[in-house]
Amino acid sequence: MHGANNFAFIDGANLHYTYENLDWKIDYSKLILFLKAKYNVTFAYYFLGKINENSNLYKELESDGYYLKLKTPTKYTTEEEYCPYCWKVIAPELIRYKSDCDSFMTLEIISNMSLYDKAVIITSDGDFDELVKELVRKDKLRLVFAPCRDGCSGLLVTAARGRIAFMDDFKTKLKKLRRQPYGNLDP
Predict the structure, then answer these.
(1) pLDDT along the chain (187 residues), means of 10
(2) What's the pTM value of the predicted model, to 2 decimals?
(3) CA 152 – CA 145 distance, rounded (Å)
(4) End-to-end CA, the chain
(5) What is the CA radius of gyration of the chain?
(6) E runs forming strands in the chain
(7) Which residue from 11, 44, 144, 158 has the highest number of Cβ atoms inside 10 Å of its Cβ?
């Protein structure tokens, strides 16, 4: 596959929320270099909701070489949840944002199919199973690169037909290293 022109399409919310709940954090600059070296990725599209508070994240991702595809989120409010026994509030009403980038990402992958040799899809979301099946049928899928084996949808695994890998298997190459504030203090 030397000289291949493969594109990565990253479900940013899925990737972010996966690593929010794991014991290690992904280094996005290492990820893009890994994708280029291992899977011949020439463009890496990162799909994410556009929220003003994330402007530093967007700048960092762009400086790492990602092409951002941002979608304005819809604001919604969760309902309060009450204990069924004492009727005390156990979960308060919260304002949340939902970007629904899945359809946006799918449209980009399908409409740009003539621009790339193969697609590397980064998600563990089963909502992409039909897209993955279509890419397999058209011989346009290089790989589904799921953020975590444990949280990956069985639908996605089946749809990929063996063309799947898991980031946690590459933890040593993709892990963000924590900085020690005063350098190495060992003698």
Answers:
(1) 86 86 88 97 96 91 97 87 87 81 95 97 96 98 95 94 95 80 45
(2) 0.83
(3) 10
(4) 47
(5) 19
(6) 6-11, 41-49, 67-71, 74-77, 81-82, 89-91, 95-98, 119-122, 141-146, 164-166
(7) 144
